[in-house]
Amino acid sequence: MTAPNEIVTRSNFLSLLRLLLAIPFWFLLDNLQSPDIKYFTFGLALFAVGTDFLDGYLARKRNEITEFGKIIDPVADKIIVGIVVIKLFLIGEIPIYYLLMILGRDILILLGGIFVSRKIGRVLPSNMLGKITVSSIAIVILLIILQINRENIIFLFFYVLSILLIFISLIGYSIRAKEFIKQKNYGSV
In terms of pTM, does the model score above 0.70? Predict the structure, then answer.
């Protein structure tokens, strides 16, 4: 069982806050045609991205890295991104293949993480490649919220980059999982 001091940390609070932001996003995304709503939603999205970077920084800086934090941080990322991309698909802002790639990646990583955690007896923290992938998806989402022309070179760059990183990060997570399981089997984890 997780001790209360493992849960009640500033970094975990930021992760939980980011998780709860999925609720207002669901409703705000219906009104992107309104400039006030569009810019408010954009600001809220920047705040959510900021909490993602700040929670990890605080956990390391204040020595608050916890097993709960290793779970809640990526789960919060996956839920908020999942809710936002589902809504963007439902309102016609992203195609089905992009939605399925993002959700499929997150589901595979989540299930793989559970499998690896059971095999090695601990939770693996997020890695830099995963953070970069989520950041590239977040940039695409931010550009969509701002209603940037989809033929804009900046939009196309980040859109294609996010697609490539989805596949690269899946390969990276698979290799990393295999290495940790192999280390565990040979007694070095």
Answer: yes
